[in-house]
Specification:
CATH class of the largest domain: Alpha Beta
Number of helices: 4
Number of domains: 2
CATH architecture of the largest domain: Alpha-Beta Barrel
Order of helices and strands: EEEEEHHEHEHE
Strand content: 15-25%
Oligomer: single chain
Largest sheet: 4 strands, mixed
Structural class: alpha/beta
Radius of gyration: 22 Å
Number of strands: 8
């Protein structure tokens, strides 16, 4: 494949980008007669028409398991992070975490990211769930989309390891499932209003 007539950051003029086996083979100045390229069929060419070509974007912090769930089980009236975390805990208490729904919603989010130029996602995925439903769904998604977007999975104890029933054991189980990273939050502590199970 050849991307023709591309603008590149830090370079004057337009450039042809040659891609072979999903690797950049070479970048050369676009010829003055851009319609006359040796040995290239129209199917192998994409004319960028002077538009900027850049490397894929990186979304370094997203929660794919929370994608597209606004209002379920209830709206976040305050609009705060703490209420959003409480709502996620309520979803678990009410057994609303469904593998298929989480997978479908996360796939929609991943497609939207890719359509807007993102090539790499780091998803913080909840591991304070008795069945690790969200983690299982996002692990499956990572495998299914690996040909067009890279997903790193951060095992993230959303409702804190020590506040959630069997939190340490769940974290151990999650790590055995081979997420990419492990993270924790210093800003979230058990609060009297919190509704997650103990």
């Amino acid at each position: 494949m050849i991307i023709t007539n591309a603008a590149l950051r830090g370079r004057e003029g337009t450039w042809d980008v040659f891609i072979e086996n999903a690797n950049f083979r070479s970048i050369v100045a676009s010829p003055a007669d851009s319609d006359n390229r040796d040995g290239s069929s129209a199917a192998d060419l994409f004319d960028a028409a002077g538009r900027l070509v850049v490397e894929p974007f990186v979304d370094a912090h997203v929660h794919l398991d929370f994608s597209n769930i606004v209002g379920r089980p209830r709206p976040n009236e305050s609009g705060t992070l703490f209420e959003a975390i409480e709502i996620w805990a309520e979803r678990k208490v009410k057994s609303l975490n469904d593998f298929d729904e989480i997978y479908r919603n996360a796939l929609v989010a991943a497609r939207s990211e890719a359509a807007n130029g993102t090539g790499f996602i780091r998803s913080h995925t909840d591991v304070t769930d008795p069945d690790l439903t969200a983690l299982k769904a996002i692990l499956q998604l990572r495998e299914d989309v690996k040909d067009w977007i890279e997903i790193q999975i951060v095992a993230f104890p959303q409702n804190t390891v020590l506040s959630f029933r069997d939190g340490p054991q769940l974290l151990e189980q999650a790590l055995e499932m081979e997420p990419t990273l492990l993270a924790a939050s210093r800003t979230m502590r058990a609060r009297p209003k919190t509704v997650w199970p103990r």
